[in-house]
Amino acid sequence: MIYFTSDTHFGDPRVRQIDRRPFANMEDHDEALIANWNGRVTPDDEVWHLGDFAYSKRDRTPELLARLNGTKHLIIGNNDPVSTVEAQGWASTGYYAELRLDEQVLVLCHYPFRTWNGMGRKSINLHGHSHGRLKPMPRQFDVGVDPRDLRPVTLAELLALAGGRAEIWRH
Questions:
Q1: What are phi and psi of 158, to 5 degrees?
Q2: Sequence-distant contacts of 88-94: CB under 8 A, at least 24 apart
Q3: 3-state class (DSSP) for residue 165
Q4: Cα gap 120→118, rounded to integer Å
Q5: What number is the average pLDDT over the span 153-161?
Q6: Count of CB atoms within 10 A of residue 21's CB?
Q7: What domains are defined for the chain?
Q8: Gap between the Cα atoms of 143 and 154, Å rounded
Q9: Phi, psi angle pair for 37, to nearest 5°
Q10: Rounded to two decimals, what is the model's pTM?
Q11: Neighbours of 88 (CB within 10 A)
């Protein structure tokens, strides 16, 4: 199974206020996100994290990656320091990726696009960064933890949210 997520901001005290995440402290926040991740993702699954993994002043990326299930890929976000990007435990890192999943082309970036490669051929843009605050566009999904119940999601779940019209999204 392949999952997508973004904006976990492990160890970042700003998210408790800015995003109103319902935790008394950062330890509770981080442990809940780890439990939610591992409650869905098995060691054999793959996860594409679309940026803003952890707080740079408390970068515990190697420790966190060791605790999180799955093969992990990082699409670099604006809050990912070099120490996060270069940490052992990522299968790949980059600013952008395109995947084909079940005949569907996915364009992955931390930032949402107004237009993207293959948009006219029904490709889908998955992004983070906006923490669920942007008005949705057709074939574009914010995979950040804030609009996704603080857990990774699958493409099928995202398509179901689009009204169960998966055939519209296919090539």
A1: -65, -45
A2: 88/62, 89/61, 89/62, 89/65, 90/65, 91/46
A3: coil
A4: 5
A5: 95
A6: 19
A7: 2-169 (3.60.21.10)
A8: 9
A9: -60, -55
A10: 0.92
A11: 8
pLDDT, one tens digit per residue, over 60-99 is: 999 999 999 999 999 999 999 999 999 999 999 999 999 9
Alpha-carbon distance 166 to 37, whole Å? 25
pLDDT score recorded for residue 167: 38
Following DSSP, what letter does each residue of 50-118 receive, concatenated? -S--B-GGG--HHHHHHHS-SEEEEE--TT--HHHHT-TTEEEEESEEEEEETTEEEEEESS--SS-TT
φ, ψ (nearest 5 deg) of residue 146: -65, -50
Cβ count near 1 (within 10 Å) = 14
Q: Are 61 and 53 in contact (CB under 8 A)?
A: yes
Joined together, the tokens standing for residue 136 give 């949705």
Q: Nearest 10 degrees: CA dihedral of 52, 57, 63, 68? A: -20
Cα dihedral 80→113→145→134 (10° resolution) = 120
